[in-house]
Write a structure and sequence with these properties.
The protein is mainly alpha-helical. The chain has one domain. Helices cover about 60% and strands about 0% of the residues. The chain contains two helices and no strands. The chain starts with 8 loop residues before the first helix and ends in a 6-residue tail after the last helix.
Length: about 55
């Protein structure tokens, strides 16, 4: 029995495939940015947050 609001099988599979590709792409980008952030500018605001405040 098929629900009357469900689309065709091919349409549902296309939506699932596109959603899966987007999800995998987001995970790949997340791990790339996490492991290799690429920011080397010492004046970047993150260094103000991460610096050791106990330095003399």
């Amino acid at each position: 029995m098929e629900h009357h609001m469900a689309g065709s099988l091919l349409g549902n599979l296309m939506i699932i495939a596109v959603s899966g590709v987007i999800t995998i792409g987001c995970f790949v980008a997340m791990f790339k940015m996490l492991l290799w952030p690429g920011e080397t500018n010492r004046r970047h605001p993150k260094y103000n947050i991460l610096r050791d405040d106990n330095r003399d």
